[in-house]
Design brief:
The protein is mainly alpha-helical. The protein contains two helices and no strands.
């Protein structure tokens, strides 16, 4: 049996456009704790 369930977060995202989501994220400083890594970081280079 295949798992065809869709997460609640995905369902919410389907209700708004990508632009709206980005605007809300910026308005509420949603990326404040986001960490980004370079391509070489996982390898300790």
């Amino acid at each position: 049996m295949e798992n065809t369930s869709v997460s609640l977060f995905r369902q919410v995202l389907d209700l708004i456009s990508k632009r709206e989501f980005e605007e809300i994220t910026m308005e509420h400083d949603g990326d404040k704790r986001t960490q980004t890594f370079g391509r070489r970081t996982p390898f300790g280079v």
